[in-house]
Amino acid sequence: MNKPTGLAAFTRKGAASSQQTATDQEPGAEQSAETRQRGRGKGDVVALTVRLPRAEWERVHQLAVSEGVSIQSLAVDGLSKVFAEKGLPTLSV
């Protein structure tokens, strides 16, 4: 087995081999979208990414450090306040 080079080095393991087998299969033998299973977002806890400019992240980080809490806690508290302002139940985390 050769070491992948170029963009292939950044793809998921087995992706290249599944593409190879997909091209070897007969037309119409691909899995439909309904039969494929997603792996993300299925558990009890779902990860969420928030993108901030570095300067804003530094402010958030500094606030978390000074309050002695995590950025996660600040985010959940903030989202709960937004829900409360709109008359909705707060997050129960």
Offer a quick outline of the entry:
The chain is mostly helical and 93 residues long. The protein contains three helices and no strands.
Overview of the molecule:
With 93 residues, the protein is mainly alpha-helical. The chain has three helices and no strands. The mean pLDDT is 81.
- The span between the termini is 47 Å
Q: For the residues shown, what is the average pLDDT?
A: 81
Unreliable stretches covering 5 or more consecutive residues: none
Cα-based radius of gyration, to the nearest Å = 22 Å
Q: Structural class from helices and strands?
A: mainly alpha
Spell the H/E element sequence.
HHH
Shape assignment: flat
Give the key terms.
mainly alpha, 93 residues, 42% helix
Write the layout of secondary structure elements.
Blueprint: H1 15-24, H2 54-67, H3 71-85
